[in-house]
Recover the amino acids of this structure.
């Protein structure tokens, strides 16, 4: 692949060892990887190169990862940004999705987890290019609260909520070969992994929970028919039902569909 056709990635972190580690994990013949040691340097480099994907640490001196995201999205709304975050900043990472980040990856993470996320980001770009950004065939029903590019929740009668995967998450995912659902009675926090999809390319795609609570029921139909996720993502393809513990606070990090 010639240099002009290659995708371009920028890795941003104030620690050079982290930049090098991430760069080594994702370096490929299919894309170039540059690094920047600050948000200021990242903005300057992006003005010159217009990167397809930017991977940035959330917590940095000077221009933080969140501020970098806001500035990038104002200049280039189409840019894809992955936030690298630690456990104490998961709530901020959820907020970054609402602002427009493609996704985030919590520390510690493995090279395989990072490569899976980069692969999904590029497949998303490719699918948008092929579709020329045509409207989705399945519009999200009104009244759902959702985390952009990940999950939705619906408040049921009573105290329970139903959780599912938004269609945009599934578009860049290949043929689904395995779906890991959370055990009944387990607790999960907003912004943490609640399910995981493995595709035919052996990439693992982690799905973030839109709310905090205890798992009451999982959709057993999905174990025998993964196609329900794509056929009916807002109906029969739901993932699980949950008893939320702090729903009103969690809803602040989500968007309401109309």
């Amino acid at each position: 692949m010639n240099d002009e056709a290659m995708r371009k990635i920028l890795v941003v972190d104030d620690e050079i060892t982290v930049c090098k580690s991430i760069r080594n994990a994702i370096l490929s013949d299919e894309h170039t990887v540059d690094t920047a040691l600050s948000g200021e340097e990242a903005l300057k480099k992006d003005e010159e190169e217009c990167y397809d994907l930017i991977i940035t640490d959330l917590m940095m001196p000077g221009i933080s990862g969140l501020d970098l995201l806001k500035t990038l999205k104002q200049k280039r709304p189409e840019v894809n940004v992955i936030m690298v975050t630690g456990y104490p900043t998961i709530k901020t990472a959820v907020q970054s999705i609402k602002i427009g980040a493609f996704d985030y990856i919590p520390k510690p993470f493995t090279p395989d987890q990072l490569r899976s996320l980069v692969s999904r980001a590029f497949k998303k770009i490719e699918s948008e290019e092929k579709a020329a950004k045509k409207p989705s065939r399945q519009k999200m029903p009104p009244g759902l609260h959702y985390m952009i590019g990940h999950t939705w929740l619906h408040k049921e009668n009573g105290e329970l909520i139903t959780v599912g995967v938004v269609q945009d998450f599934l578009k860049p995912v290949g043929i689904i070969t395995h779906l890991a659902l959370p055990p009944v009675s387990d607790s999960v926090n907003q912004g943490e992994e609640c399910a995981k999809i493995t595709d035919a390319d052996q990439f693992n795609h982690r799905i973030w929970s839109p709310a905090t609570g205890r798992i009451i029921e999982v959709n057993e139909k999905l174990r025998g028919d993964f196609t329900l996720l794509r056929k009916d993502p807002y109906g029969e393809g739901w993932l699980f039902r949950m008893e939320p513990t702090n729903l009103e606070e969690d809803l602040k990090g989500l968007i309401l569909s109309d």
